[in-house]
Amino acid sequence: MSTPTTAHIDLTTGVVTADPQPMPFAEMLVEHMGGRVHSAASAEFQQLLTAVAKHGRKGSLALLVVVEPPKGHVEGGPLSIAMSTVAKLPKGETPASTYYLDRDGRPSRRDPRQGELWDDAPAEDRQAALRAVLARAGADPDEVDGLVDALDSAGYRRQ
User: Fold this and answer.
1) Which element (helix H / strand E) includes 40?
2) What's the pLDDT at 63?
3) Mean pLDDT for the stretch of residues 52-74
4) Residue 105 scores a pLDDT above 80
5) Residue 67 and which of 86, 89, 110, 157 are 20 to 30 A apart at CA?
6) Where are the alpha helices (DSSP H) in 98-158?
7) Is it the case that residue 148 has pLDDT exceeding 50?
C-alpha cells in the first residue's frame, strides 16, 4: 500500500517541499529494543490464539506505545519511546461441585440424609453391596468374587 505524497508550500518564497514519509510502524516495532518487544508480542499473540481456541471465549492483545519528551522540553531534543504489550487471555471456568452441609455446618461431598453404605455393616452386607456395585458397573461375573475379596480385604470404604 503506498502512502499518498503530500507537500506544503512556503507562502513567502513559493517553494514547494514534499513532506517526509513516515517510518513504517512495523519496522519500528521490529527494531525497538533489539526486537524484544516484537518477539514478546508474537509469543503472546500465539498464547492468545491458543487460549481462545481452547476456551471458546474472546481475548485481546494490545500494544502500548508511550512517547515522552525530555524534561524541560527542548525542541529537537531526544524522545523516550517505550513499548509494552497487554494481553487478556480467556480462562476456562472451573465447574461447580455439589456439597451438603453436615450436622456441624461444614461442607461435605456426602449427603448426610443418606445412610453410609459401609458403616458398621457386617462383612456379608458389605460384600453384597460390593457385588451389586460391580454388577451395575458391568464387571465380568467370573471376576466379581475376586474383586469383592480384594476390595473388602483392602478395607475399601465409600468416600
Assistant:
1) helix 36-55
2) 97
3) 93
4) yes
5) 89
6) 123-136, 144-153
7) yes
Set of cell numbers at residue 114: 443418606
Half-sphere exposure of 140 (CA within 13 A, CB side): 4
pTM, entire model = 0.51
The domain locations on the chain are: 24-88, 116-159
Q: Residues 28, 41: contact at Cβ < 8 Å?
A: no
C-alpha cell at 76: 529537537
Cα(3)–Cα(30) distance, integer angstroms: 20
DSSP state of 126: H
CB atoms within 10 A of CB 3: 9
Element (H, E) at 108: strand 107-108
Q: Which one-letter amino acid corresponds to residue 1? A: M
- Give the H/E segment covering residue 83: strand 80-88
H or E stretch including 18? strand 16-18
Label residue 112 by pLDDT band (50, 70, 90): confident
For residue 159, the model assigns a pLDDT of 43
Other Cβ atoms closer than 10 A to 126: 20
pLDDT band at 155 (very low <50, low <70, confident <90, very high): low
Q: What is the pLDDT of residue 35?
A: 95
**What residues are paired with 8 via a beta bridge?**
17
